[in-house]
Amino acid sequence: MSQMNRRRALQLLAALGTSGLAAGCGSDSEEAAAGSGNPIKIGLIVPGTGANKANKAIGDEITNGFQLFLGLNDQQLGGHPATLVTAEEGENAKSGQAAVDRLLKEDVLALTGVVSSDVILGIRDSVEQARVPLICSNASPTSLQSVVYIWRTSYVLDEPGRALGQYLHETLPATSRIVIIAPQNLGAPQNLGSRDVIDGFRKGYEVNGRRITGDPIFTPDVAEPVKGTYTDAIERALDHRPNVIFCHYAGPAAVQFIKQLYDAGYRGRIYAPGFLTEGTVLGELETEYKSIEKYGIETALNYSADLNNTANRVFASAYRKTYNASPTTYAMASYDAAQVLDKAIRLVAGNPTPQQVNLALGKIGQIDSPRGPWQFNQPRTPQQKWYLRRVQRDGQLLSNVVINELATLG
User: Fold this and answer.
1) What pTM, to 2 d.p., does this model score?
2) Which has more confidence, 182 or 34?
């Protein structure tokens, strides 16, 4: 938050009853100097009205996170008035390429967003050839490697599984029966990485002789599942009499999977990447399962809205006030995408070019983020902490509450 507009930051902190950020907000003379650069455009690639419900929700949160940073900084990035130009991502490489082509014609300084792993892999070569930096705030396949102009503020998709695998290796008895269940890798962006997630979990858990017996059980890859979609797979899973279920779902698929699992009688522990309970999932489950917090759902994620640091107190409070909702990891990663662009643009004297901004991104150092401090590693992804979150009451609200720090990965 060191680049936040001083006046706006102090107003927010006063409202929060919080102190301690003012020293990092810059002087009045610095504020007066801000905004002296030429206007710039940033291209935002997100799913729109044509996307499925889950992708549209993630796209909305990505948009909100970036817009919030601009709103807290007088609509500027690095001292330049900034305009956000949005293009429809769609759900495949072809639609993603159309979005990139459209935004490049707008003479954007940088690109951001991207929800779908299909899309990020499909546009990789064109982004590299255009030599325009893309700060990707969601899509995160492990196969996206050896890039120069693509950076990620989210994670690599095997990391939440690795963090949970290491934790369960340390805390579960060796005799525990673990069943892995996840969607097939057939297209929906939140499902495309099932194998990445599972491979990460095995890598973290299967050390020092530990093994997970039995193959993963894969469910139909349905963007909008209904009652009964997962029944057969769940019955096969419960035939193994598991002590623990490790799964990977998000959005409407997460809601239906958890409902159908509980309706089948399972009351053991559920562990998953944090996407399982992000967004509106908990609210939808609570209407049918009033005591769901007693069942035992724990997830690993790089962010939780209850993290107690100054950057998050400001971010989470401003997000709730602006959007009447708690922020998610998707909104946070997009907020950080704006923050790293702000820092990189400030490092470039005069009017920056995309190539200069890309070079500067490698020099910005540590980010003071709502997730906690992090920095880019050599593959251009975050080196960051992962947190263990438990579904439980925070006052009257059913929430993801941080109960432990897991590994630092990246």
Assistant:
1) 0.89
2) 182
